[in-house]
Design brief:
Number of domains of chain B: 2
Number of strands of chain A: 0
Structural class of chain A: mainly alpha
Number of helices of chain B: 12
Structural class of chain B: alpha/beta
Oligomer: heterodimer
Largest interface: A-B, 23 and 31 residues
Helix content of chain B: 25-40%
Distance between the termini of chain A: 28 Å
Strand content of chain A: under 5%
Distance between the termini of chain B: 36 Å
Order of helices and strands of chain B: EEEEHEEHEHHHEHEHEEHEHEEHEHH
Radius of gyration of chain B: 25 Å
Helix content of chain A: over 70%
Number of helices of chain A: 11
CATH class of the largest domain in chain B: Alpha Beta
CATH topology of the largest domain in chain B: Rossmann fold
Number of domains of chain A: 1
Strand content of chain B: 25-35%
Chain lengths: ~260, ~325
């Protein structure tokens, strides 16, 4: 009960700070919009290839947009640790750690605020993608895809906060997170489906949980709710999320700022 | 006793090397007093405070804080203490009122109770006027007052202040001393760290001097200074030097006399007399000289400072460390 109340308190404080600085919402949306406007049109010609491009069976935009949304969730959540470092430096985390507040709540409350902002961004992007990319939206699938986004964002938020509290410096946080996230992104088929990959690359991608997240998002967007990718993504990302939350909560409890 | 520690120790591991930041600290803090931990940078002040406020775990030793065992009842300790770190603990686009209410709620208050208490605290620290402005617009002194307000939002029995006046201008510093004294008047004990000699001397009821992770002296500022040397009275006489010296040395409150050579130009020789209490010794000494018909050419009372205490215990001057 106390942990729930504390989580709500930490969450509402983080959300209040977010709402007071709405500029981040715009900043995080700009990059995917660039991709949507300046990159996505390149793919439209794939629809005219006789026999179709592998991986683009449900249409170019229908394949690209779900990947783009996952990419936004990935970048939007991976770098939230920067805000935490600023708070560490100002003694905010230390002040809260001296109160009887639940240690787990300090992490989960913040991570949930990351999830909320990511969902808002994803929703805006879906709505914008419809006229800009000229694609029809299958809402039941999109709502299930939001479930995948929640798990992805939760997992990456926890990872980012955990790494931030260990490193305590922006200078090392950026390269560390980039090193972790870039290969994961490339191996997930976000930009181009992994179906185009040579078999060795495909084999490597099979070990990447985000590959399943991206494919699940595509399947759900196309209305294939019963696709195997959906439960696989939920299982792999959800499992990783639990592990990372446990790890990061421990770091929060013992943090020496 | 609000705090009692026994052999408190902290060892940090850094790049495979072990660094003993605090090596066995024993100290005690009483109810309602201002207790200072004085020492140079890197002496282990902050580490000791962080251990006592549950931020880091001691490597060895025991402590009880506000009647709770530090190792087994951290939740109990956290309920009864307030803590204000060097960085303060607030930042940016939040208002003082928002932060205070949040702080109250983190201690389990309802929204209503927290809002009421926040208004009281804002008033007490003269922050009502700025209560609904973003903290980033605050001056150094205002920010520091807010930091302390946050620390006492839940009316703790004991407040930890880590270097409360570092970086403040002299006026804000004097205000801060007043705030700390006001806390004591309201019954809150204060445990503070400082590397300022004058702050330890003027503000603290009792203090412990820490160096290289060890307590080298503990007591009231007056007792600590007395222990070192007592007061020194320097009297200059122009004539009958030896006679004056012998006469004053015979007084039973004079512990020791150091005679100086007469100045060739003026003929004044300055004697340094070590006495327990300079303020009562001065009139007696003057009367004695007067009775013998010897005129004093100059007289000066030198009271030992905490720096003399530090110097005696560690062989170094804290003043030099600062510069």
């Amino acid at each position: 009960m106390k942990a729930l109340r504390d989580t709500w308190l930490v969450y509402s404080r983080a959300m209040m700070l977010n709402v007071k600085q709405p500029v981040w919402l715009v900043v995080m949306l700009i990059q995917p919009l660039y991709f949507l406007i300046f990159f996505a049109p390149l793919l439209n010609s794939f629809d005219d290839v006789p026999g179709g491009m592998p991986g683009f069976e449900s249409g170019a935009m229908e394949t690209f947009v779900p990947g783009l949304i996952i990419m936004m969730a990935l970048f939007g959540s991976t770098f939230v640790g920067f805000g935490l470092i600023a708070e560490l430096r100002q003694g905010v985390i230390e002040r809260m750690r001296v109160t009887p507040v639940s240690r787990v709540a300090l992490l989960i409350g913040r991570t949930l605020s990351t999830v909320t902002t990511t969902l808002v961004q994803a929703l805006i992007l879906v709505v914008l993608a419809s006229p800009l990319g000229g694609l029809t939206i299958y809402w039941p699938g999109v709502f299930l895809m939001f479930g995948i986004i929640v798990l992805t964002s939760f997992m990456l938020g926890a990872l980012s906060y955990g790494v931030a509290i260990v490193l305590k410096s922006e200078d090392t946080l950026a390269p560390t997170l980039n090193t972790l996230v870039q290969p994961v992104m490339l191996l997930s088929g976000i930009m181009l489906p992994m179906a185009l990959a040579p078999s060795w690359l495909q084999n490597v991608a099979n070990f990447n949980p985000f590959y399943y997240a991206v494919e699940a998002a595509r399947a759900l967007f196309a209305g294939e709710l019963e696709s195997d990718f959906v439960w696989q993504a939920a299982l792999f990302i959800g499992g990783l999320a639990v592990l990372l939350v446990v790890w990061a909560s421990r770091k929060f409890a013992r943090a020496v700022a | 006793m609000l705090i009692e520690t026994k052999g408190l120790k902290k060892v940090f591991k850094s790049r495979g090397k072990e660094v003993e930041a605090v090596r066995g600290v024993d100290l005690s803090v009483k109810e309602g007093e201002i207790f200072g931990l004085l020492g140079p940078n890197g002496a282990g002040k902050t580490t000791t405070m962080r251990m006592l406020s549950t931020l880091i775990e001691p490597s060895e030793g025991h402590a009880s804080v506000c009647g709770h065992d530090l190792a087994s009842d951290q939740a109990g300790v956290r309920r009864d203490i307030g803590y204000v770190g060097q960085e303060g603990g607030t930042w940016g686009e939040v208002t003082a009122r928002e932060e205070l209410i949040m702080q109250g709620r983190l201690y389990g208050m309802s929204k209503k109770t927290a809002a009421r208490r926040a208004a009281t605290v804002l008033e007490a620290f003269q922050l009502t006027e700025f209560a609904d402005r973003n903290i980033k617009t605050y001056s150094g002194g205002q920010k520091r007052r807010l930091d302390i307000s946050l620390g006492i939002m839940h009316e703790p029995k004991l407040l930890f202040l880590d270097e409360p006046t570092t970086g403040l201008d002299p006026q804000s510093r004097a205000h801060m001393w007043d705030e700390v004294r006001a806390l004591r008047e309201r019954g809150t004990a204060v445990f503070l760290t400082t590397h300022y000699l004058d702050e330890a001397d003027a503000l603290c009821d009792r203090l412990a001097i820490i160096d290289h992770g060890e307590i080298v002296a503990e007591g009231t500022p007056t007792a600590l200074k007395k222990e070192v040397a007592g007061d020194v009275v320097a009297i200059g006489v122009n004539e009958r030097h030896d006679e004056a010296r012998a006469m004053l040395d015979a007084k039973d409150f004079v512990r020791e006399v150091e005679a100086g050579e007469p100045d060739p130009a003026t003929g004044t020789a300055v004697m340094r007399l070590y006495v327990d209490d300079g303020s009562t010794a001065l009139p007696e000494l003057l009367r004695a000289l007067d009775g013998a018909g010897i005129a004093a050419a100059s007289i000066e009372l030198h009271r030992p400072s905490l720096d003399d205490v530090f110097l005696k215990q560690t062989g170094r001057s804290l003043r030099e460390e600062e510069s």
